[in-house]
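Help wanted!
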Amino acid sequence: MKKKIFYVCILIVLIACGGSTDDSFIPVNPTDNSSNDNNDDGASSNNNTQDWLIPISEVKDGGPGKDGIPSIDSPKFIDANDPRTDFLNDADLVIGIVKGGIVRAYPHSILDWHEIVNDKLNEDFITVNYCPLTGTAFGWRSAANGEKSTFGVSGLLYNTNLILYDRNTDSYWSQLELKCVNGDLIGDEPLLESVIETNWGTWKALYPNTKVLSLETGFSRNYGNYPYGGYKTNQDFFIFSASPSNDALPNKERVYAIIGDDVSKVYQFQKFTNGKVIKDLFKGKEILVIGNENLIYSFELNESQSDLVFEYDFNNSETFFKDNEGNKWSVFGKAIEGPRTGEQLKANKSVVSYWFAIAAFYPNPEIYTE
Amino acid sequence: MKVISMNLKIALLLVFGFLSNFLNAQTCCSGGIPLSSSIGLPNLEKGTIQIGIAYDYNKLNTLNNGTKKLDDNSRLRITHSTLINASYAITDRFSVEGLFTWVNQRRKISQFGNENLDQTSGIGDGLILLKYNFLNAIGKNTDLNLGIGSKMPFGSSVEKNNQGITLNADLQPGSNAWDMIYWSSISKSFDFRPSLNISLRNIYRSTGTNNSYFGDSTYKFGNEFQVLLGFSDQFLLFKTTTSPSISLKYRNATQDKIGGFDLENTGGNWVSIISNFSINIKPNVVFSAKAELPVYSNVDGTQLTPTYRLTTGILFTFAPKKEFLNLN
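Answered by r_m:
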């Protein structure tokens, strides 16, 4: 009897250790992106191209894994005066977009947990993406290779900044590089949509009819809990490193940055307290930078606009600035009153960012001084 | 005697057969290598060697926010570990124990109809422990054992996926850090039933720091404290000695540190219940099977927390040959 028990026990150990497990069924098919097996045998990968436009040594595994931070693909919105917006305080940051008469806000407190919202505004598919570690948000067309595509969180970071992937081709896109850096679409650039980062109080004042992303995201998360502890305020706390560093400003100071190719010019919010208009030059072109302590945006001026004298004019309505012709302009640079009604100023490529991130992606950025 | 020797050879053959199967297949995996909870072989007479081999399956598929279970099972972390324990009694009281591991770490995300798997395999960290036994030092039928040791960074901490991207600390087979281990065990048996045993085991792991995390940063897993309160007894089953036991385990881990700063969504407090069944399949061979189920989890922030853990193993004991006085 003992001998039988002995062999049964040995058999149990063999079955336990050598047998297949619940996750060993995963198919390994290099052409099937529905299963990505990053194992050591090299049988398949996230995509099949090894070429990167960025140094692969600086690409880091963030920890949650691909889609471990789930994008919101079926966003639901509620009115600004809906009691369910009580999770938002006036000082809380949101990303705002206005397109085709639709006004929407995406709170940081939700984006911290999802980073990407694949949204549809009328017939336009827009991907709003936000990196909590660099504090940068963009809106871009939900398209890859000319076709509609949603985007997901790859789980990888470059210079501690979000790398997205498109679900059409599984190519990887560096958010702050604004470029596809790996995959079939390597070198492609996203088509940007104008978005504004400001606080909820300011956005509501600008657009009282705004809708705001609901907490009913389809995912179970504690949105009242910021998941990165003291990261936003501790100047020395980095989860992943970014380089080059630049100590001209505190690492985590939020700045408004105009970006173009490899250069950037940075504007500090404190310089815009109580509202300010600046005419400046960026890459040899005349620009208008306008804002207050909560919101900055900028435009490239053409010949017909460069002679206008602009003035900050925000009084808790859609009008954000005016000019000497009697035009009133929205924060997105659209003339909403006056002889130029309907005219649209050309928005600069810009982003609100932690200082260190702009300094890492666009080394030696120029800091605006009066 | 010849039969016993033959059986031992067969057993070793099967064990090594299993090992080679594991090494070739690399299909096993897990999330959290049971290093500190796998030490503490019994203290036996001078010269005794104990060798154990165990397989541990640790599944983490439960997403918690504090104590609240979230409705999300898209993330799966599994750690498959093979553990080899070896202990040698230097004296009747003093022994040394080593633990060596082979691990397969898996992270699978099932989201949006896709499955994404990242995994690493390889030699994991090891552990060495020096133990001293104070028999009846604090009372009749009471055993006190104290131990001190170190976790040694044998395992790789720079494993990459096949795109050449280094995976994060959680998925690495090793930690690239030396830890200090403080271990103690108190057990008591009773005159009315000598086979009944109550034990209390404490393990404190003071973790070291990986000073080259991702090349230019540091990573320190949180310090860990475990206490296990166990009850065991022995019964005869088919004329074979069996030892069922049940333990209550409390585990506390402080937050990990990255670059010297606390990392959110790491650390917490857990209580689990462990049921174990051992059977002496031969006088010197014990087979055991163990299941650990969580009963309370209070994690820092939002993180995966253990769903269950299964362990099976065999322990071989080789007593020293008795020396008889030759009167011829």
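OP: Thanks! One thing I noticed: Chain A touches chain B through 67 residues (CB under 8 Å).
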